[in-house]
Records
---
Amino acid sequence: MYLPEGDHQRVKILVAGPLGVGKTTAIKTLSQIPTLHTDEVMTDAAAGTDDLSLIGLRDKKTTTVAIDFGRLTLPGDRVVLYLYGTPGQRRFLPLWEGIAFGALGALVLVDTRRLDESFEVMDLIEERGLPYAVAVNTFPDSPDYDLEIVRSKLDLAPDTPLITCDARELNSSLNALIELTAHSISSAGVGAS
Ligand SMILES: Nc1nc2c(ncn2[C@@H]2O[C@H](COP(=O)(O)OP(=O)(O)OP(=O)(O)O)[C@@H](O)[C@H]2O)c(=O)[nH]1
Ligand SMILES: [Mg+2]
C-alpha cells in the first residue's frame, strides 16, 4: 500500500519493552498497512532464557526475533509515523541499537507484574537522549497500581508521560502514541536526528 502523493513528514517511533509486553500487538493495532513481523516459534531451547511461566504467558507460542514494522498516517495526511517494534530480550541489544538510530521517540510498554524488567530498555533510551512515554499495558492478572505508584517504582521524571493502554484497542493505543508524539515535539531537538 503506497502513500498518497504529497509532502510527508516521516517520523520514526520505537515501540519498546520487555518480553511479551504487547509490542507486536500494539503495532498490529496501530498500523494502517499490513505489518511486517519477524515472530518465530519459541522452542524448548528458549525455556531457560525466556521464562514465560513467570509472566502468565504459558500459552505464548512465538516471540519477535528482529523487528516489527508498521506505518500510520496521522489525520491531515502530512505526518507519517513509522513504527518499529524493538525486541525485548537482552541478547538482541546490538540489533536494538540500529533500530533506534534516527528515532524521534519511544513508547515503552510495561507490565505491572514485572516493572523491574523495564529498566534496561529505559536506560538504553535515556542514554540516547530519546524522549519517551510509558504505557502500562493492562493484563487481567496485573496489579492495578495507581499511576503515581508506577511512576515512583519506575523512577520516571515528572514530565515523562505515563498512561494506561490496551494494546489490542486502536483508540487506546492511539492515545498512548499521541502522548508520546506531543512529548517528543515539546522536547524537540533532544535526541532527534
Ligand atoms: N490482556 C491483554 N493482553 C495483551 C495485550 N497486549 C498483548 N496482549 C497479549 O499478550 C501476549 C504477548 O503479546 P505480544 O504482542 O506478542 O508481545 P511482544 O511484546 O511483541 O512479545 P515479544 O516479541 O516476545 O517480546 C499476546 O498473547 C497478546 O495477545 C493487552 O493490552 N491486554
Ligand atoms: Mg513481539
---
Amino acid sequence: MDNLFQLKDKNIVVMGVANDRSIAWGTAKALIEVGANVIFTYRKERSLKKLEKQLANYEDIQPLLIQCDVNSDESIQHAFNEISEKVGTIHGIVHSVAFAHAEDLKNRFVETSREGYAFAQDTSAYSLIAVANAARPFMTEGGSIVTMTYLGAERVLEGYNVMGVAKAALEASVRYLAADVGTDGIRVNAISAGAIKTLAAKGVPSFNTILNKIEESAPLKRNVTLEEVANMTVVMLSQLSSGITGEVIYVDSGYHILGI
Ligand SMILES: NC(=O)c1ccc[n+]([C@@H]2O[C@H](COP(=O)([O-])OP(=O)(O)OC[C@H]3O[C@@H](n4cnc5c(N)ncnc54)[C@H](O)[C@@H]3O)[C@@H](O)[C@H]2O)c1
C-alpha cells in the first residue's frame, strides 16, 4: 500500500483541524496510516488543545503543530518558514479552511455586506493563493495541494449564500494556480465534498435539510463519510493522481449529477 501512494515519510501540511469531526482530521488520520509525516497548522489555542488530545492516541509520532491564521500574510509566511526550517521540503498541503460571518449565511443573499463578502473571500478563497505562494519555495520536488469545496460554488443552495460565491472563487483559483505552478511540478486540485456534520457545517442554517435531501435523492441514497472524503484527498496528494491538476473531484454520493 505504501508503495502505491508513495507518501511514506513525505511532509504533508494539514491546515484546518478544529476537532475530531473536521475533514482535515479525517485526512490527517488517513495520511498517518500511509506513513506520511503530517505537519498540522491550527488557528486558535482551542484547536491546539483538541489536536494535542487527539494526537495522544498516536504514541509513536510527534507531529509539528504550527500556528497559522490564514487572514494574515505574516502568519502564513511565518508558519511556512518554520515548517521548512524544521522538516525541509514540503511535498503536499491540505487546505481545509473556510469561514463566513453567521449573519451572511442567515440573511437574504441580497443583503450580504461588503465587509462580510470580503471576509468570506479572504478566508475561504484568497487564503489558498497566499498559502500556495508561501509554500512554493519549499516545494522543490514538486507536490500536490488539495483544497475543499462544495456544490454551493455552482448551484444555489439555500443558506450557503456568500460561502457559495467564495467557493466559486476558490474553484477558479484552483484552475489559475494549477496553470501557474504546474511548471514547478506542483498540482492543485479541489475535492467537492458532500455534506458532513462538522463545526463549519453547523453554521449553514439548512444543513439538516441538505443531509436528508441527499439521502433521499443522491444516486448512492446516502451521505458520504468523513473517511470517504479523506481517502480521496490522500489519493489526490499521492502519485496515484499524478496526471490530474486544476480539477474539482466530487465525493458526494453522485448528488451533483442530478438535474431535479
Ligand atoms: N462539512 C461539510 O459538509 C463540507 C462540505 C464541503 C466542503 N467543506 C469544506 O471543508 C473545509 C473544512 O471544513 P469542515 O467541514 O471540516 O469544518 P471545520 O470547522 O472542522 O474546519 C474548518 C477549519 O477552518 C479553520 N479556519 C477558519 N478560519 C481560519 C483562519 N483565519 N485561519 C486558519 N484556519 C481557519 C477553522 O479553525 C477550522 O479548523 C472547509 O473549506 C469547508 O467549506 C465542508
